[in-house]
Amino acid sequence: MTHIAMPAIDEAVIGRRDEIVAGLVAILGAEHVIATEDERRAYETDALTAYRAVPLAVVLPGSTEEVSKVLAFLNGTGAKVIARGAGTSLSGGALPSEDAVVLGLARLNRIVDIDYANRVARVQTGVTNVNITNAVAGQGFFYAPDPSSQLACTIGGNIAMNSGGAHCLKYGVTTNNILGLRMVMLDGTIVDIGGSECDAAGYDLLGLVIGSEGQLGVVTEATVRILRAAEGARPMLMGFDSAESAGACVAAIIGSGIIPVAIEYMDRPAIKVCEAFAHAGYPLDVEALLIIEVEGSEAEIADLIARITGIAEAFKPSTLRISQSATESAAIWKGRKSAFGAMGRIADYMCMDGVIPTSRLPEVLSRITAICEGYGLAVANIFHAGDGNLHPLVLYDMNDPDQLEKAELAGGDILKVCVEVGGCLTGEHGVGIEKRELMSEQFTQVDLDQQMQVKSVFDPGWKLNPAKVFPLEGRPAVSA
Amino acid sequence: MSIAAPVTTPDDEAQLVEAVADAGARTVPLAIAGGATRLGLGRPMQTAESLSTANLTGITLYEPAELVISARAGTPLAEIETTLAAQNQRLGFEPVDHRRLFGSQGTPTIGAVAAANVSGPRRIQVGAARDSLIGLRAVTGAGALIKSGGRVMKNVTGYDLVKFLAGSYGTLSVLSEVTFKVQPSPETEVTLVLNGLDDDRAVEALSTALGSPFSVTGAAHLPAGDGDVARTLIRLEGFADSVDERMKDLVALLAPYGATESLDADATRTLWRAVGDLEALGAPDDAAVWKVSVKPSDGPAIAAAARAAFACRVVYDWGGGLVWIATETGGFDAGAAVIRDAIAPLGGHATLVKASDAVRLATDVFQPLAPPLMDLTRKLKARFDPAGILNPGRMYAGV
Questions:
Q1: Whose CA is closest to B375, among A189, A212, A73?
Q2: Residue of A260 and A479 predicted with greater confidence
Q3: Which of residues 326-385 of B touch A (CB under 8 A)?
Q4: How far apart are CA B341 and CA B134, in angstroms?
């Protein structure tokens, strides 16, 4: 049923399963090694559910030292290693293979230290994204990157994918908010990269590791920047009769010197589904809806809203509503943040993640619609308009193999358009297996060779999450 | 200070590829330069030839509504800043001009800003140059033309070589073209000044300000010296009404730290340019200058250790986390042992930004790395520059 090819399975490793499991049990104890098929099956996929493979074993180490011992042991076995946070990857980043051991971070869930004076927190990487903010919210602080899956996803997964979120227009993505990492290399060596200070010494290994999709090492602890939250924030809704008007309005706001903390976009099909789910009061008679959030003191919020509504008038919004209460603000954001879940109630979908220059928005949206119609599929668009990060949801029926294939082809065509207009394949979900074969649309083989050289420095045998990121053709030969 | 002749100055990217490939074929090490204003930063190199990006000029893309600008590496920084200013925009990270510090002439280039990850006072709020750098094209030591990132704000497609090459001082590749995220210039800016605080109290005050919701974009401390009273500086930027309101709130918040005064927009612009370009350090030609990066609360302890061991002048930026130390009397190692011993138990790193060639040959200019990190550094260097021809030894011996 799968259309994306996987690397050859190492049958010899599978043949040594009992021996490998015994070795893992000797390190972690039986209670932290998952070996039965039924229990291993829970780890067979992530949020890209069309692809599944039951791993050789699953381990749940409880400390960096245990991760080190596990990796040093596995390094001699030929088994592949897939690090896994909460398994919320939309690109198959945590998808295992039959000859791989899944290394789950679930027990590394401790917040080690919070240092308000220096505005940093030290956390283990199995901590969920939202729990960092929860831990510091009492003092008025927050951790900025906020992917939609923030209730479930771990900071470890965020580091692997360099995750973003709705509010990164102002605060940046994961790589802009991490100061230090503790990482275990495949041979068990523990390295500390960066610290609590700005601009780590030497080459920017933080920048290299963040976004490397679990292919360079297993990150067990991170020092994250925490920021003092603004005094208040308020979203507003603006509906437009056309994508052109909405897109031009976004450009005019940013061009005026205002960077709202978030600018989210939904098209008509997305509005309908999200409103049915969240009852957020979204207008149902518009082609494009913007959620624009500003923050600051009461007076600053009022001033920014006045400026933005003044700019927007030129684009004739058919709806313009400013949230009047905390309850209303929460409902507006609930609709947006639960959009993927709400869409999942009515259909299966492939969630794409391409990025485009914002000036090409209207053109690209109509091309996306045309592409999907060409395959006989519907599409809903929900995305971060301020930074051009599109999330077309290509709707299909998972039980119909023909439709899955068409959805994947449509998704590929959409991403090719993103690259063609000057954008990229993925803005925050990562390449995973999903976009691996499309990498040659964006990069030359020379570009990819250089990236793969980096992987080979950290992981000469290509054992760490190897099925991801790079096309299967053109990889360096590695000895097993 | 000048780069080694003969100097190759390619006129376009194809010539750049050719020049690097040619040096690789001959195994001739190259000193890499843009405007040659920061040559004193790094270990002295033994290079027979040089490669300059000074002729790779021109802005190749600027979309104000998308907050993005691309330029060839040799484009003068001043041209970028003028072009942005015409649209009321700027590079958020406030790149520092090193000419005063090094007494160099030349024209700072945008490529060097990326290659040396040059950030100024606003780094504390908007991140470093590398955080605004979203795309690049570069030629590796193997003569391969590569690109990473692009021109859009969010991009996680493949490994982030953009960050990795930023701050690698031309030891891994020669940058050909860079793309930066830009930000709107504020309507106005002001500075709140606290007078007469000692270092500990000053850093405490800066931490309080930075931990407030009032969006502080500069947080520096100039300790007392030569009859001058100590000044602790806090900058706010934005729309005028908003700045006024936040200023009042900040004054109230910082009341426990004594009387305050405020500086208007013009004075603020001049002052922070001076802070970034290290005028207050007053370093004469023969001084050694250290750049120490630590947790802000550790800044005063580092300065105290240095002062206890040798005569020096200190300036704090980045809320206290960036400590500049200038000395004429730090001994044969310019105070390296004292400063790095003070850092060791606390975490952080020290760079000997400026010193005589002799001192920079004898002392680690960049913070020595833990063995596993040094091992990775050497292996990565070998994959980008297998023949070791790009700025060899500028950061670390053998790298």
A1: A189
A2: A260
A3: 347-349, 351, 366-367, 369-370, 372-373, 376-377, 379-380, 383-384
A4: 36
* pTM beyond 0.80, yes or no: yes
- In which domain, by residue range, is A313 found? 232-339
Strand partners for A223: A122, A180
Amino acid at residue number A233: A
- Helices H / strands E in chain B, number of each: 14, 18
| Distant-in-sequence, close-in-space partners of A211: CB < 8 Å, separation ≥ 6 | A160, A161, A162, A174, A175, A430, B156, B159, B160
| A312 located within any domain | yes
| Identity of the residue in B127, B168, B207 whose CB atom sits nearest the CB atom of A203 | B168
Contact between A162 and B156 using a beta-carbon 8 Å cutoff: yes
pLDDT digits (tens, 9 = 90+) for B157-191: 999 999 999 999 999 999 999 999 999 999 999 99
Tokens, residue B251:
């004054």
Pair of tokens at residue A370: 């045309």
**How far apart, in whole angstroms, are the C-alpha atoms of residue A453 and residue A112?**
34
**Domain end among A228, A256, A274:** A228
Rounded Cα gap, residues A57 and A43, in angstroms = 9
A74 with A148, same domain: the answer is no
Q: Indicate the number of domains in chain A.
A: 3
Please give the domain boundaries of chain B with CATH numbers for all domains.
1-185+369-399 (3.30.465.10), 188-276 (3.30.70.260), 279-362 (3.30.70)
- Of all residues in chain B, the one with the smallest CA distance to A386 is B66
> Which CATH number goes with the domain that contains A176?
3.30.465.10
B164·A208 Cβ contact <8 A? yes
Q: To the nearest whole angstrom, how far is the Cα of B303 from the nearest Cα of chain A?
A: 16
Q: Does residue A160 share a domain with residue A127?
A: yes
B100 to chain A, any CB pair closer than 8 A? The answer is no
**Amino acid identity for residue A459 in this structure:** D
Chain A residues closer than 8 Å to B161 by CB: 208, 450-451, 454
Interface check B28 vs A, CB under 8 A? no
Task: Please compute the mean of the pLDDT values over residues B36-61 and round it to a whole number.
Answer: 95
Q: What's the CATH number where A324 sits?
A: 3.30.70.2190
Structural contact between residues A5 and A40, judged by C-beta atoms closer than 8 angstroms: no
Residue A151 in tokens: 């209730």
Query: Over chain B, what is the mean pLDDT?
Result: 95
CB contact under 8 A, A201 and B245: no
Asked if A457 lies within 8 A of B207 by C-beta distance, the reply is no
Are A313 and A270 found together in one domain? yes
Residue A74 has pLDDT above 80, yes or no: yes
Which of these, A12, A35, A11, lies nearest to A23 by C-alpha position?
A35
Phi then psi for residue B8, to 5 deg, are: -90, 130
Question: Helix A339-346 vs helix A326-337: angle between axes, to the nearest 10 degrees?
Answer: 50
Which residues are within 8 A (CB) of A229 and not within 5 positions of it... i.e. 6 or more apart?
Answer: A137, A140, A141, A142, B213
